[in-house]
Structures are given as structure tokens and as C-alpha cells.
Amino acid sequence: MDLYSEDINKLIDELAALPGIGSRSAQRMAFHIINLPIDRVKRLSSAIIDAKQHVKYCKECLTLTDSELCPVCANEKRDHSTIMVVENTRDMIAYEKTGKYEGVYHVLHGVISPMNGITPADIRLKELIERLKGDVKELIIATNATLEGETTAMYISKLVKPAGIRVTRIATGVPVGGDIEYIDEVTLTRALDGRTDL
Ligand code: ZN
């Protein structure tokens, strides 16, 4: 890697730190960027900066949005007493695409993972508990069917149940280890319909 100049190395390192990009792809991308006309590179970098600066967290559900309230939370026709807990904004979008869910969401921005040092305090649980002080009838836990997703579901269930709120878990139509983001809409709808009480 020392064969490259310091600036190229820096670019490769930044790209390689992104999810899903290994050092080979990072090198390929770095050289592609260097060969682009300068205005294309400027457009790319300002798109990154604009997205970072303008995108904020919905003040209700914490999904990434560009307004105070995301379109789901701002919609009065949605059932605000049913909250689906998801790991991230991508999973929320996956459920929105089914068009079959009428409640609202809560985005955790992560899952509890003792192995990776991620504790309940590191995800947006405090905000969820705060929301439960309002009129909430059901909490549908739609974390992924991974060890971390299950751990998080059990943790939330134990935390919330004493408050007398119904806690359900989406059915196992979602394959173990499967990523909600990549599951088709029919399976997601079936998983939602077949949810069971925790
Ligand atoms: Zn929202």
C-alpha cells in the first residue's frame, strides 16, 4: 500500500472503512474517483456533505428524515397506538413498502450485542420507553432474526410488559439470520400478520 502517495492511501483508507467495501474495491473506487473530472468529484463530495448536514432524526420515531416529523409520524390517519420497533431506517422502509402496516415505528439504530460491546444504552431505547408513557396499545418487535435481534426483542419485552402494554414479535416467516431489508413484501406481510405475543 506504501507504493501509493499519502493522499491516495488516505482516500483508500476512508473508502475501505465503509460497510461492505474491502480493500480491493476501495482501491478500485479510489482510482476511479481520481480519474473523474473535477466537477463530478465535487458533486459527489457535496452530495455526501449535504446528506449528512440536512438529514435529521424524526422527533417521534427517530428515523432518518429531512423534516421535524417523518411522513409516517406526521400522518394522522396512521394508528399511533401501535408501534413497530425496527433496527434501522432501511427496515422501516421495507415494511412501508408492503403498504399493509398502519401503525407507526420506532427506530433503534442498532441492536444489543454484548459481543460487540453494544449495550442497551447504546441504542435508542430510552426514547422508546419515553414514548410508552403516551397512549400505546401494542409494541410489535420487528428486529432481525439474529442472535442480537432476539436478545434485543427479549430485553424490550421484559422492560415493557410490566407496564401492561401488549408486546408481540413478528413471525418466523423472516428466516433466521435473515436481513429484513432484503426480504420480499409478501413474506414481510405474512410475518407481521402471524406475529405472536411475547
Ligand atoms: Zn417518525
Give a quick precis of the structure.
This protein is an alpha/beta fold and 198 residues long. The chain has helices at residues 6-16, 23-35, 38-54, 71-74, 89-98, 125-131, 147-160, 185-193, and strands at residues 56-57, 64-65, 79-86, 103-107, 138-141, 166-169, 196-197.
Give structural notes.
The chain has eight helices and seven strands. It has 198 residues and is α/β, with parallel strands linked by helices. The structure holds zinc ion. Zinc ion (ZN) binds next to helix 4.
Q: In the CATH scheme, what's the topology name of the largest domain?
A: Dna Topoisomerase Vi A Subunit, Chain: A, domain 2
Q: How much helix is in the residues?
A: 40-55%
Distance between the ends: 52 Å
Residue share in β-strands: 5-15%
Sheet with most strands: 5 strands, mixed
Number of DSSP strands? 7
Name the poorly predicted regions. Answer: none
Strand order of the largest sheet: 4-3-5-6-7
Number of separate domains: 2
| Average residue pLDDT | 90
The molecules bound to the chains, other than polymers, are: zinc ion
* Net shape: elongated
Q: Please write the CATH class name of the largest domain.
A: Alpha Beta
Please report the number of helical segments.
Answer: 8
Element pattern in H and E: HHHEEHEHEHEHEHE
Overview features:
alpha/beta, five-stranded mixed β-sheet, Helicase, Ruva Protein, domain 3, 2 domains, 198 residues, Dna Topoisomerase Vi A Subunit, Chain: A, domain 2, binds zinc ion
